[in-house]
Amino acid sequence: MDLPETYVKGFHDENEVRKMKYSTLGSTELKVSQLSLGTAAFSYFYGDVDLKECRQVVHEAIKKGINYIDTGPWYGHGQAEEILGKCLEGIPRKAYYLATKVGRYEKDPSLMFDFSAEKSKRSIEDSLSRLGTDYVDVIQVHDIEFAPSLDLILNETLPAVQGIVNEGKAKYIGLTGYPVSTLWECIERSHVPINMLLSYCRLTMIDDTLTKFIPRLQGKNVGIVNAAAQSMGLLRNAEPPDWHPAGEEIKTVCSEARQYCKDKGVELGKLALYYSLQHKGTATVLVGMNNRQLLDFNLQVLHEGLSPNELAAYNHVLKIFEKLTVRHWENIEVENYRKFISSEAGGGGCSK
């Protein structure tokens, strides 16, 4: 196997890099690793953050062939980008591809989203400063379904992002969001070329919605990053975060699967990653990792698959999930956000 262009002799572990599979990300020239690193967990969203541990994860991940890293200003309101920037110190810039975002920012719902051209231009400057670099490889418009209308994304945000690319501060343009249908509509209508999209929680053990869109996206040569194989914490042995938006039915059935895995001495998160890795058509599976144990077991699943005991549990867990009558939480967060914004507008301002 040829070594990827991100390989740096003397820095990488060549044997590990040769084990990694790489695929071209849509219409970009980026050959990305089959497993990639998400950094939402480099923020307080998922608990306490250990900078030393995060740094070791980043260094080990890149040395072992992971070359695509995703972040954004929303994760901890800049905390993840800032920590990632510190973690990347001492690593050759050639050794990795970096993706960040514009559009989603603050915890306060009244300040959470800003898809204006002006804010997007300011945001990339802040991101570059926190990351300690003068360019990112991919700039994505974050969670486009929350925009007042898709027209705003098409007529203002994306042209601003194209300007960021024209200035050399990013190379390629992407979209992120939960409703895959909204991502597809934006791609179809956009006059700005869309090189890739990040779809999260939509190609997992409980929801395979993304598979219906893969042929269409391939037809447009749009690269696909399949993120959140563990469905933002639902599909792991640890309890999901309190803020998780899934409904009670999904949480209850996932809890049953979680308990089954604990009883069998199996990690549900490994089964979930294995499931997402089996599907063709996506360039990479993006997984949040903020400690070396997670990195090690994710690489183990990637390179070795599941043990016989894990494979038996995997097949049983899939049967548990067959009882689900609802497999997603589409529109729940958007509707709650719209209600808040509407009440704030009617009440004459923010009550917080």
TrEMBL record:
UniProt cross-references to Pfam families, sorted A to Z: Aldo_ket_red (PF00248)
GO cellular component: cytosol
GO MF annotation list: L-galactose dehydrogenase activity
Residue span(s) of domain NADP-dependent oxidoreductase: 35-315
PANTHER family: GH17980P-RELATED (PTHR42686:SF1)
Official protein name in the record: NADP-dependent oxidoreductase domain-containing protein
